[in-house]
Write a structure and sequence with these properties.
Blueprint lengths: L23 H5 L1 H15 L11 H10 L6 H19 L3 E3 H8 L5 H10 L4 E3 L2 E3 L5 H6 L8 H26 L3 H7 L10 H15 L4 E3 H10 L4 H12 L10 E6 L2 E6 L1 H16 L2
Antiparallel strand pairs: 1-3, 2-3, 4-6, 5-6
Helix pairs in contact: 2-8, 3-8, 4-5, 4-8, 8-9
Length: 287
């Protein structure tokens, strides 16, 4: 990747002269990412269990992750999340790294990703054994699965856990200016070229529109934004398909799409507006 491109999305960087380089959008969303992370953890701390379809902030996080679930690396990470959630019920909250790798279907970067999860307090690693601590968010989202055994809800929980890890890793990146955790999670240790640029570019665009107080945005604006990251063709069509709800298996609930002339308008659901207002209240209160 050229040195003048954003380390996250691949757009031309125009913020500062240091490293790592960020584009204007990825630099701006530092605040919404950190505020969303802070709100989420403050809410989860008060809950014994978390339903990823009814707890609004968890629901939003899961919805956002649907934007990237088709990328091979994101898909492997979502499968790892699902495997860890299953440990709660199937393996008494622990399993070997070998068993986890076998279940996920790859050994690629599993260990480094598990280490990231351990740093977030989601798991503990003792030798080659992975354990889910009693106070882990993983146990909180696994509890409702006693009654919610359908496959769609299992997908929602894995998407939420994927989002929890992704947002937490981005917060760490913004706090330290060290891109290594992002590469470990979504790319590879030796290259930023392999990051899922379409996912990150779409994610940051949506967060920008939402946090700035807009209730809707135009498809033409999203298309223009993705083009700056060289995202076109089938990949861009997939992103629009997720937002428009074309595939029920990946349907998101935070937005709806309508046509106005030759352009699409994407309208934020009321529940994400409520989340935004809770963040504003925390900002006004100095939390």
């Amino acid at each position: 990747m050229q040195s003048n491109t954003c380390v996250l999305c691949g757009q031309k960087s125009n913020i500062g002269s240091g490293e790592p380089k960020l584009c204007k959008v990825c630099g701006y969303v530092k605040e919404p990412v950190k505020e969303l992370w802070s709100l989420l953890n403050s809410e989860l701390a008060t809950l014994a269990s978390v339903d990823c379809e009814t707890q609004e902030t968890a629901r939003f996080i899961a919805d956002l992750m649907a934007l990237g679930v088709d990328h091979p690396r994101v898909k492997h990470l979502a499968r790892l999340c699902s495997t860890l959630i299953n440990l709660v019920w199937e393996r008494e909250s622990e399993g070997s790294i070998y068993e986890i790798e076998k279940e996920v279907g790859t050994t690629f970067d599993i260990t480094s990703r598990l280490e990231l999860m351990a740093n977030l307090g989601l798991i503990s690693i003792e030798g080659d054994i992975v354990k889910i601590p009693t106070n882990s968010v993983i146990k909180k989202i696994a509890l409702p699965m006693r009654e919610r055994i359908n496959e769609q809800y299992r997908l929602r929980t894995s998407l939420f856990l994927l989002g929890y890890i992704t947002i937490g890793t981005l917060v760490r990146f913004y706090d330290t200016n060290d891109a290594t955790p992002v590469r470990q999670l979504l790319g590879s240790n030796d290259s930023v070229d392999r990051l899922p640029r379409a996912f990150i570019s779409a994610l940051t665009f949506v967060l920008l529109q939402w946090y700035d107080g807009w209730d809707q945005f135009y498809g033409s604006d999203l298309r223009r934004h993705l083009r700056k990251s060289r995202i076109q063709g089938a990949v861009r069509s997939d992103i629009f398909g997720v937002l428009a709800g074309r595939d029920p298996r990946r349907a998101v609930t935070f937005i709806k799409a309508i046509w106005k002339g030759f352009d699409q308008i994407f309208i934020f659901d009321d529940y994400v507006k409520r989340i935004r207002e809770r963040i504003r209240e925390r900002e006004r209160g100095g939390e």
